[in-house]
Amino acid sequence: MGGVKQERSIHNNSLEAYWQGRVDEFSKREREILALLKATNGCFTDREIKVGLGYTDSNSVRPRISELIDRGVLEEWGNVYDGTTRKRVRKVRLVGAPQQTLLAI
Q: What is the DSSP secondary-structure string of 52-72?
């Protein structure tokens, strides 16, 4: 209604169990991204995810991150200034992750 985003009311354990049951639906790269975010319980920029996974090309992760957002597994959680690109960039986190301070790393 009116474009208002509703908060999820699904318990984190239920959400995790749902996605674990569908692990075969994720590509290898998507599983790597999800594993990084789950292991660190973090909120990262696309560049931070790229570096964290050891890739050199942002296009290695950016399309997969967008797909995971579209699928409702990740959510954008604010934005920060990226000193490399000198632009504001998104930060993403797992849906249902605890709130975090949005500080540039």
A: HTT-S-GGGTHHHHHHHHHTT
The position carrying tokens 């692990």 is 23
How does pLDDT run across 7-21, given as a tens digit for each residue? 554 555 555 555 555
Architecture of domain 29-94: Orthogonal Bundle (1.10)
Bridge partners, residue 93, by sequence:
75
Tokens encoding 45: 């920029």
- At residue 10's C-alpha, the angle toward residues 7 and 16, to 5°, is 120
Query: What pTM was computed for the model?
Result: 0.72
Q: Are 46 and 61 in contact (CB under 8 A)?
A: yes
pLDDT at 1: 47
- What separation in angstroms does the CA of 97 have from each of 11, 16, 40, 75, 83? 11, 11, 11, 10, 26
